[in-house]
From TrEMBL:
Biased composition, class Basic and acidic residues, residue ranges: 35-48
Signal peptide: 1-22
Keyword entries, A-Z: Signal
Protein name (database record): Uncharacterized protein
Chain residue ranges for the region called Disordered: 29-85
Length: 85
């Protein structure tokens, strides 16, 4: 009986550790996405400054999109880290 309980506890511990590792991996992926969107946002801002009126409008929309995606990815990364703990 004791061996069965120890085996069950060990299995549950390993399962929890695997879930935590998956959440940490997900958090890292989301953080990478957030960083990439932040880079794309800055590039769109730069292009908007150098563009004419239409290009400025297009690049401002791109910048806004990447800003929102960056924030969303950062929030998801934070949530994944909370779930891992």
């Amino acid at each position: 009986m004791n061996k069965t309980l120890i085996a069950l506890a060990t299995s549950l511990t390993l399962l929890a550790a695997g879930t935590a590792n998956a959440q940490i991996g997900k958090a890292a992926s989301e953080a990478t996405d957030a960083a990439q969107h932040k880079i794309d946002e800055k590039q769109a801002d730069s292009k908007a400054k150098k563009s004419g009126p239409v290009g400025k409008a297009v690049n401002n929309v791109k910048s806004g999109y990447h800003k929102n995606r960056s924030k969303s990815s950062a929030d998801k990364a934070k949530q994944s880290l909370k779930n891992a703990g």
